[in-house]
Structure formats: structure tokens, C-alpha cells
């Protein structure tokens, strides 16, 4: 797997960005009935594939210690709305297989 360069400002602390991250994390915990302390990662990634939006939001969370789930929202993190999250009944379809290899979703 080839890793590209980090975005400019990746580690910059921006209060608005931190609030957007916290908001998406809280919505994810609520939507999927996760514990308050459950690990939820919300981040923006640059997409270089054709017809892909320039920035997409990736959210990953763990339902048990070894069961990771993830989904993408094809817009910047600050623009993600609660209705952009998948419905709770889709949680089992959000499985993240470590060797899926297809590069999709």
C-alpha cells in the first residue's frame, strides 16, 4: 500500500475542526448505540481518484475490541450533517476487513 503525503496543516489545531470532529464522533456513538468511551475516529482524507470529491470524511469505530466498522461521507468533515450517517440497521454491513484489497469504501 502506497501512502501519500500528509495534507498541509494535518496537525494544526483549529477549534472549528475539533468541534466538527467531536460532533461527528458524538453522532456516531448515538446512532450506533456505542458506549460514551467507545473509540471513534473521524478524519478527512484527500481523494486523488477520478470523479472522487477532493475531501472525504472517514469514520471508524469499534463495536467490540476486535470488530471495526467504518463508513465514508463524501464531503469535508465540517460539512457532515447527522443525516449523512448511515442508519443503525446497516451497522453489520459497515464491516472493515483488513485485507479487502479492492480499495473501495
Short characterization:
This protein has one helix at 15-31; strands at 40-46, 55-64, 67-73. The chain has 105 residues and is an alpha+beta fold.
Key attributes of the depicted protein:
105 residues, three-stranded antiparallel β-sheet
Describe what this molecule looks like in 3D.
This protein is 16% helix and 23% strand. The two termini are 15 Å apart. A three-stranded antiparallel beta sheet has the order 1-2-3, with helices on one face. The protein has one helix spanning 15-31; strands spanning 40-46, 55-64, 67-73. A hairpin with a 2-residue loop joins strand 2 and strand 3 (67-73). The model has no long low-confidence stretch (mean pLDDT 82). With 105 residues, it is an alpha+beta fold. The protein has one domain: Double Stranded RNA Binding Domain.
Broad structural category: alpha+beta
- Estimate the helix proportion, in percent: 10-25%
- The CATH topology label is Double Stranded RNA Binding Domain
Order of helices and strands: HEEE
- What is the 3D form? globular
Largest sheet: 3 strands, antiparallel
- Report strand order across the widest sheet: 1-2-3
End-to-end Cα distance: 15 Å
Give the count of structural domains.
1
What is the number of helices? 1
Radius of gyration: 14 Å
Strand content: 15-25%
CATH architecture level-2 label: 2-Layer Sandwich
Query: What integer is the average pLDDT?
Result: 82
Outline the low-pLDDT stretches: none
Count of β-strands:
3
In CATH's first tier, which class applies? Alpha Beta
Amino acid at each position: 500500500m502506497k501512502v501519500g503525503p500528509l495534507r498541509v496543516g494535518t496537525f494544526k489545531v483549529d477549534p472549528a475542526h475539533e468541534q466538527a470532529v467531536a460532533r461527528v464522533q458524538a453522532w456516531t456513538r448515538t446512532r450506533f448505540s456505542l458506549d460514551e468511551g467507545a473509540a471513534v475516529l473521524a478524519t478527512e482524507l484527500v481523494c486523488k481518484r477520478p470523479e472522487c470529491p477532493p475531501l472525504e470524511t472517514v469514520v471508524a469505530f469499534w463495536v467490540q475490541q476486535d470488530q471495526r466498522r467504518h463508513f465514508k461521507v463524501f464531503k469535508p468533515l465540517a460539512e457532515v450533517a447527522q443525516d449523512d450517517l448511515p442508519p443503525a440497521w446497516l451497522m453489520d454491513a459497515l464491516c472493515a476487513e483488513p485485507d479487502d484489497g479492492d480499495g473501495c469504501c
